[in-house]
Amino acid sequence: MTPKTEDDLARIIADADAPLRIQGGGTRPIGMPTNGTILSTSALSGIELYEPGSLTLVARAGTPVAEIEAALDGEGQRLAFEPMDHRGLLGTSGTPTIGGVAAANVSGPRRIQSGAARDFMLGVRFVDGRGQIIKNGGRVMKNVTGYDLVKLMAGSYGTLGVLTEVSLKVLPKPRHAATLRIEGLADEAAVSALGRALGSPYEVSGAAHLQGGNDGAPTTLLRLEGFENSVAYRAAELQSMLADLGQITVDASPEETEATWAAIRDVAPYHDAMGDVWRISVKPTDAPGLVASLRGARAFYDW
Description:
alpha+beta, 10 helices, Alpha-Beta Plaits, 2 domains, 303 residues, Uridine Diphospho-n-acetylenolpyruvylglucosamine Reductase, domain 3
């Protein structure tokens, strides 16, 4: 079933006498998927409002993420929470939608600096299990609406209602970005280095450690974003601060930096890999010991 309007969706849900499986682009069969009839929001698509000056965008739930990113890029803006694309990890096809991003609270490496998807959601419209159309939040940063159903819907995976519209805060794209790369660190040393960098005043927007980088050697990565002079200054300061760890290289190529962090965002080391993939959230300093106890496990760390 693929309703074309919010009212059609409400009627379908109100008349349903069996479980429904909510689906946007079909790229994230995770959470609590049912074996019910597929109810697709893909026809509820389109950007309804975009005000670059107000840093506000409103889109219907079935709108492809790529369409939103293209519109934002044209105005020098972006989704700061950097939503992950699950297709490579889960082996799915389809097109990621903004409703799926909101429903799963999909975020990326920049979450440590900017926050998660839920932190950028200003308002939602959705249909609950009784077929009622509900609106919560608004289209501006300051709104007082009683119960914060916006945050509740983020990460609910369609179990509380079917999203039909999402209002988002967007942010300007940085003028420049660079990646600091340290080779050969053991897990404990890498986590210590990342902690030192994140505890500094140099505004790190990405921190990751791969047990096996491009050449198979352990690779520790830090991302800086902002104006070019600021990035250069902060990179030099971090190089000095972490000089005891060995040689630190700085990659200031925009294309290379974007590709590096897209791979971290999308968990590229596990694409097409055999076996199960687990995401385990622990206190950072506990992570190396945990990984060591999982004998034979191949891990990488995203702060």
